[in-house]
Amino acid sequence: MTARLHVLCVAGSPSAGSHTRALVGHIGGLLEQRGFESGLADLAVLDLPRSHPDHYWSEAPHPVGRAREFIEAVLAADALVLGTPVYHSGYSGLLKNAVDLLPSDAFAGKAVGLVSHAGGPRGSATACEQLRQVVKALEGWAVPMQVSTVSADFSPSGRGGDRALDLTGPVHARCEELADQLAAFTRAMRGRGAGAGAGSAVAGATAEVAA
């Protein structure tokens, strides 16, 4: 039996029970419906150490166990979802520190979905656009669809007041499309033989998504 593909959802908010965590969790659930296994890296509770250039350039494993576990989880994932709150029209420093812990090819051969949440008027797309450059620098492929939310897109789920995306609202359809694209890109990139380059794999996935 072929092992299921694994997606790691990274919540880049420093707040426990954040909208960002709910959003990446929602995307993870949609990918589970599409045959993936999903995991969550909630940066609010991981307590990762500060990144340092000595570790970035070193080939030795990171000396802090929490950082090693996070790096290994990213490298082991077939796909990623990066989620961030919006601070001063940018992505969070907590997420920046986390990606700075990673080797420069950490996203190689991986499709990445980008989502963000802003507390005010809808305008969090800028943070996703900034993260596209980060994904490119780490040799990954950000899928075309991205999702930006505001507080009005969520409602209490009834389980201890946890936030949940409103399934009747317009954002849910975008989440579905993001999950479809991430699944298609990941299967195309993981399904190609060793002789096929990443560019041809992405071109094939783009054709599949557009079909």
TrEMBL record:
The record's listing under Pfam families reads:
FMN_red
> Which keywords does this Swiss-Prot/TrEMBL entry list?
Flavoprotein, FMN, Oxidoreductase
Fetch the InterPro entries from UniProt. Answer: Flavoprotein-like_sf, FMN_Rdtase-like_dom, NAD(P)H-dep_FMN_reductase
Q: Which residues form the NADPH-dependent FMN reductase-like domain?
A: 6-149
Q: Could you tell me which SUPFAM superfamilies the record lists for this protein?
A: Flavoproteins
How is this protein named in the record?
NADPH-dependent FMN reductase-like domain-containing protein
Organism per entry: Streptomyces hiroshimensis
